[in-house]
């Protein structure tokens, strides 16, 4: 009988004619543990990644699972080092009740028969090997999309037997990959890597107690290059194009409006497309924050142009019309825009003198109709100071409007320097904060 001989357990029993073996056969109970503190070891041959379904949060793997344990009640009599037993879905010997906690579905691969085998070694160690496609449920968080790194922990253990009865661990060579594996399985959107956790992991199943598990950590690192070329680069170019409106003459309304509105609509369309094609999340995703910010930068450039148009129209029409309605050729008020109304607390006479001086100065610098109104309704220095404050506010607002509508494009010159600076600062803060958060979550998941 060689190592490749295929025998059923019953046939193997009849090969031996010893009294001890027949006694063992009659006393053998496949529903009982081989003993206390049974050691079950695992190894996994990962053939390929069938796919990653982000909407269902599932990973499909084609694997060969190997389970080893020792049962001293069974042994080989003779010189054979190992014996292949016939696979039976209802074996006549004890096997561990392997439970994969994150398992959604498992299909045993079949060609002419099920791809499964049972092997008995000369040291009473049994090995079950099964080829199957398993679908793993993985809790995914897409808040950092597309900078997210998904980490999925898969626990192999027992549901029936507690930690005192059975312990699961990985073998010395736990993971086996194809020869073309390289640094990891490369999918269209992910690079998948596998790591075994050799620590003693325990899971508590309520009243059943603590259970030992062998943990496999699957890491899905998203390919960022495609997102940089398809999303980040075009949106950045749209924002840069919007800055070109600052060098266009404000009087060229159609050209400047077409540039800004077309850029804004393109960003809105890009945002809607990416949001519909990306996985769902409870909060704004990383790429959505970027696209919304780019849209706001273009929108603010459009608002800046509206302010320029308003200032130009005020300078050309409304200011002269208001000047004519106020009485014609009188010179505009020269009340200081940022004067000081501070009163020194020296004595009562000084305070009253300074208040009278401020009131007289404000009254003298007001237009004639307002001076007449103050003469007919003179209720003291407080009213004069209030009227002077209102006039000062009107002058500030008028200067700001005239500054925005300056024919020399003063506001456009400031915006041409301010917008790129703000966008660069935003980009630096965005990438630093999200990359650090992605690394922090990756390390926390591994630990």
UniProtKB/TrEMBL annotation:
InterPro entries the UniProt entry points to: GABAA/Glycine_rcpt, Neur_chan_lig-bd, Neur_chan_lig-bd_sf, Neur_channel, Neuro-gated_channel_TM_sf, Neuro_actylchol_rec, Neurotrans-gated_channel_TM, Neurotransmitter_ion_chnl_CS
Domain Neurotransmitter-gated ion-channel ligand-binding: 26-179
One family name in Pfam for this protein: Neur_chan_LBD
Entry's transmembrane regions: 232-250, 257-274, 289-312, 416-433
Superkingdom assignment: Eukaryota
Cell location: Cell membrane; Membrane
Gene source species: Aphis glycines
Protein known as: Neurotransmitter-gated ion-channel ligand-binding domain-containing protein
Keyword field contains Glycoprotein: no
Gene3D superfamilies noted in UniProt: Neurotransmitter-gated ion-channel ligand-binding domain, Neurotransmitter-gated ion-channel transmembrane domain
Membrane topology: Multi-pass membrane protein
One term under GO cellular component: plasma membrane
